[in-house]
Amino acid sequence: MGDRRAPWARAARGGVDVSLSSTLPALKPWAEAKVQKCAGAWEKAAALAPNPPIAVVDLVPDAAPSAGALSGDVKTSPRPAKKRGPFETEFGAFIYDKGYRQLFRALGYPGADAEAALALERLNGAALAPARGDSEASRVALDVSCGPGIITTRIAAGLRGYDALVASDVSEAMTKRAAEQLDTLAATTQVLRMKEGDSSSPAPLPAFAAVRADVSELPFADASVAAAHSSAGAHCWPDPERGFAEIARVLKPGGVLVASTVVLAAPIREKYAENKVAADAETYRNAVWDVNTPFWDADAVVEMVRNSGLVEVEVLREDKCFVMIAARKR
User: In the list 136, 279, 314, 329, which could disulfide-bond 251, CB 3.0-4.6 Å?
Assistant: First the structure.
């Protein structure tokens, strides 16, 4: 599959390729232009450092896209200022990493190790049947709404058959913390292999990059990634339908999506129906649902994913409020 060593490893051994393009998938024209503005400075700095850090690139559009536009170069209007949420600060990212995420166990989440293992079964299985149009050097996995990298690093450690893993979040603080976690994983792995006297592991880590990106306007080109993953992210998206549609757009034909999210517990759904607030997913969506609120049920999540154009949508696991789904691009 070619040289799959991470950029820090390649640089430490003579610096074959420290370019940003070595880890990022193909980009939309506007995003490519943003990368080119900082590429030269990054490459010079990385070439001088024995172990350059994971690249962190801000690829959130400078302006909001016009309605209905999901790809290519579009007319834009100024993006209104948005107050940062509690987890969009560096301190918030730290708290989410060290405590808040662990509370998800009460919602039925199986724990970080178990969730990552479940996702890896499908992601690595898909790598055995490469997405159509893949070349030997183009298998990129995308982790959308990666947060501080809790699940990202576990997937990175067990990912097989991919050349690169790109962590992505709309929060700058979360993106940077995920990059720090991936840096730690890379450095730790390097030290362990040096101690063991094994510098040529049969399962090397993929290359890493971290991209600040909005799931409603992903900076990646059509059919540019082989697989996508998202843990506990979709219910936090301002427009989940558009988010799933964007993921479907960037997946290559045959590419897979694995995602977990939160749904209402059955007693809460029953209470909504009893109080005549919402009796089904549609009325709940219109009358109650808001950002960072659980979806109605697993069927509602499956329907959203199907409406994005993905096929073979299935529920991999459901427990209390936890739902993990998998799907494929036709």
Answer: 329
